[in-house]
Write a structure and sequence with these properties.
Elements: E1 3-7, H1 14-30, E2 35-39, H2 43-52, E3 60-62, H3 73-96, H4 109-116, E4 119-122, E5 126-127, H5 133-149, E6 153-161, H6 167-177, E7 182-185, H7 188-196, H8 219-229, E8 237-241, H9 244-250, H10 252-269, E9 272-276, H11 288-298, E10 305-308, H12 314-322, E11 324-329, H13 332-340, E12 344-349, H14 352-359, E13 367-369, H15 375-403, H16 406-418
Parallel strand pairs: 1-2, 1-4, 2-3, 4-6, 5-6, 6-7, 8-9, 8-11, 9-10, 11-12, 12-13
Helix pairs in contact: 1-16, 5-6, 10-11, 12-13
Length: 420
């Protein structure tokens, strides 16, 4: 029996839910007696999701440092950084003396959780990229170094790495990734970024995103959800899975472009639209229900739009995506959910992680950056999808079957290198 600690992901994200479920399943398959912990900054919400998700029964959720629960976020962040630095320096001192720290050695729960685990499972969507900057890179690097000093196994589960032209970010990536047990890039661009770092660590291989292993809903589950939302299989649907971050970055221009294309799909092509909230969060500012309301208000043909603002599970979202001819996505795992059920997504992205996944399906031409999208190029992409939809669906099905074994490959790596 070993203690596993999953870090870097929250079940607030539907993609996070899918990846944690698959990682948890494989860890328990290695040895049913293994203990698995999920470390998150929002313990109560994640604990509720665990209780409501059959595939996560037995997962233990540990959470936010109680010592930094202060209302002012800048003061809270500053105190947290000071305490983490204090813990890290102490650990470094003990490491230099070749001494093992005691169980009550650390002040922060994040460091304590790493100390108490045998194996760290990092599930991050993207790391060491200019999109997140130097602070994010430093945070991952100190965690990797700390795990190494404490003689813990550390697995970077399938994720995107880079790109970055920032010297400090690349330096952090090189230092950090040389400390870990195994690295699993989920696409060619990430693998290329890692090769460019000239790491000493050679334990690295391509593994598809774990969400590709997450099972599709059963037909009877589809029927229940379709009845709930009045979905008819005789109707032609397009799914819209928009990311509230892109509204913050792109403003009302993004909303107007989407609303215009929605109205065109309804009036010209006779589609009914499903607006899906992929991430629902009443506490934080990341809540897709708000941006869905903005899109809906801007549309003229409101009678042909179904707004789904429920906090659905990853499988429930796939049930609704299943009925669509195609989707327009800016949520990364909304894109993967589409691909998983054989539906081509048109992707409005903000990082290269979108393109490297779509490249696996020979569909990277359907990805466009949010800062470059216009009514004209979005209309052009929808035209290509409408023209080639059957061929695209056939190609997606072939690749999706190949990538469904993602969690199996990750499990083999953990079993081999975790026991070494």
């Amino acid at each position: 029996m070993k203690k596993y600690l999953i870090v870097g992901v929250s079940l607030r994200s539907k993609g996070g839910e899918a990846m944690v479920t698959e990682a948890y399943k494989k860890i328990r398959e290695i040895d049913p007696s293994n203990l698995v912990y999920l470390y998150v900054p929002d313990r109560d919400y994640n604990a509720r999701i665990v209780r409501d998700t059959p595939g996560l029964f037995g997962l233990q959720v540990i959470g936010t440092d109680s010592e930094v629960r202060i209302r002012n976020r800048y003061l809270r962040y500053g105190i947290h950084v000071i305490l983490l630095s204090y813990d890290f320096v102490k650990a470094l001192y003990y490491y230099a003396l070749h001494r093992e720290p005691s169980k009550r050695f650390f002040r922060t729960s994040s460091c304590t959780s790493i100390s108490n685990a045998d194996i760290i499972i990092q599930i991050a969507g993207i790391s060491f990229t200019d999109n997140f900057g130097v602070i994010h890179a430093f945070s991952w690097t100190w965690q990797m170094i700390l795990a190494k000093m404490l003689k813990k196994k550390f697995f970077c589960m399938p994720q995107s790495f880079g790109p970055s032209g920032n010297v400090l970010v690349r330096w952090c990536a090189k230092i950090g990734l040389d400390q870990v047990t195994y690295i699993m890039p989920r696409g060619k661009k990430s693998a290329g970024f890692i090769r460019g770092l000239n790491l000493k660590n050679r334990n690295c291989s391509f593994v598809p995103d774990l969400a590709f292993s997450h099972g599709n809903p059963l037909p009877q589950d589809d029927e229940i959800l379709w009845r709930r939302f009045g979905i008819s299989q005789e109707t032609r649907y397009v799914g819209i899975i928009f990311n509230s971050h892109l509204y913050r970055w792109g403003g009302m221009k993004m909303i107007d472009i989407l609303a215009g294309e929605i109205d065109r799909l309804i009036s010209v092509h006779g589609y009914r639209i499903i607006l899906l909230a992929h991430e629902v969060d009443e506490i934080r500012s990341v809540d897709d229900r708000y941006v869905n309301t903005l899109i809906f208000d801007r549309c003229r043909n409101k009678g042909s739009i179904l707004v789904v603002n429920d906090d659905l599970s990853a499988k429930e979202i796939k049930s609704l995506v299943k009925v669509c001819d195609f989707t327009i996505c800016s949520r990364f795992h909304g894109m993967i959910s589409s691909l998983k059920v054989g539906v081509i997504p048109i992707v409005i992205g903000w990082a290269e992680k979108y393109g490297e996944i779509m490249e696996l399906f020979d569909a990277e031409r359907f990805v466009i950056g949010y800062d470059r999208v216009t009514p004209e190029n979005l209309q052009e992409l929808t035209g290509q999808v409408l023209r080639d939809r059957e061929e695209l669906k056939r190609r997606i099905a072939i690749h999706a079957a190949e990538y469904e074994k993602a969690s199996g490959r990750a499990g083999e790596i953990i079993m081999q290198y975790g026991s070494a």
